[in-house]
Amino acid sequence: MSDAPTRTFRSAGYFEPKRPAAAAEDRPPAIFLAEMPVEIAAKSSFLSRLNAEEYRRVREIGHELRVGAGESVFCQGDTHDGIFLIESGSVRTFYTGPTGREITLAYWTPGHFVGGPEIFGGGTHIWSGVAVQESRLLRLGGADLYRLMEQMPRLALGLVEGLVQKGKCYSALVHMLGTRSVVERLAQLLLILADTDGVAVEGGIAIGRTFTHEELANMVGATRQWVTITLDKFQKQGAIRMQGRRIVLLDRDWIGDKAGIVHDGAFGGPARRTGPLPIGQG
Question: Is the distance from CB of 101 to CB of 223 less than 8 angstroms?
């Protein structure tokens, strides 16, 4: 049984037709640990194939769900019953081990869906999802989704593409956890955050999104204490600057060296990674 808070669902009903998702550059990218920022984060949402009328039909079968920050969307061990489309906000997916330790799989943003891989229902969830901030989700029941996919080939293709993206995401995470040291994983995560959500500031790049040390630890498979100590070491080396919970990268090449990357140019220039090839190149 899940101890998730009780929520009230209501039909999404008929809304003024809108484009299903904002342009890719207007949406914050999904975040996950990978050898390098692969195309999954920047790729368009699985609904980008649909026009406004088709998206209206998707909303007709859905139930809108508003979830507050920190509230559960679905829980590991609960029965599958379709998927949740993120319309606003973000959702963290994570696995909880027998000892209670968590490993973050990804942070998913608008245009992505969570609640797979059993998109038609059946079986149980093998990980959990929690809202990172106040989020508006569209719950799509498995049976209704199956019928609509039979009628809308472009929706079916988009869902297949979404499942492929998630498969790449979780494969990339396994590669990192299995082949990279925890220091390399933390350094790589900082580079990914800078590349996907960085803002140029004097002397470096400020990571736009803020994370607690516990959240960073859950992404790289470490403890909060270890992350705190290691970030302090990075700061003493002059590679980063901590401004509260915000991290500013000051020496990208140094961080790249820690991540196992061989740099071919100056700050922000192209780089190549040593070791195993990224997904899709091996």
Answer: no
Q: pLDDT tens string for the chain (282 positions)?
A: 444 433 333 333 323 333 344 444 456 788 888 876 555 444 556 677 888 999 999 999 999 999 999 999 999 999 988 999 999 999 999 999 999 999 999 999 998 999 988 888 888 999 999 999 999 999 999 999 999 999 999 999 989 988 888 888 888 899 899 999 999 999 999 999 998 889 999 899 999 989 999 999 999 999 999 999 999 999 999 999 998 889 999 999 999 999 987 554 434 444 444 433 333 323
Tell me how far apart the alpha carbons of residues 38 and 277 are, in angstroms, rounded to a whole number: 12
- What residues pair up with 95 in beta bridges, in sequence order? 103
Give residue for tokens 């797979």. 116
- Whole-angstrom distance, CA of residue 66 vs CA of residue 281: 40
Global pTM value: 0.80
Cβ–Cβ < 8 Å for 190, 249: yes
User: Which residue's structure tokens are 């820690």?
Assistant: 258
Structural domains of the chain in order of their starting residue, each with its CATH number: 10-179 (2.60.120.10), 182-273 (1.10.10.10)
From CA 87, how far away is CA 137, in angstroms rounded? Answer: 5
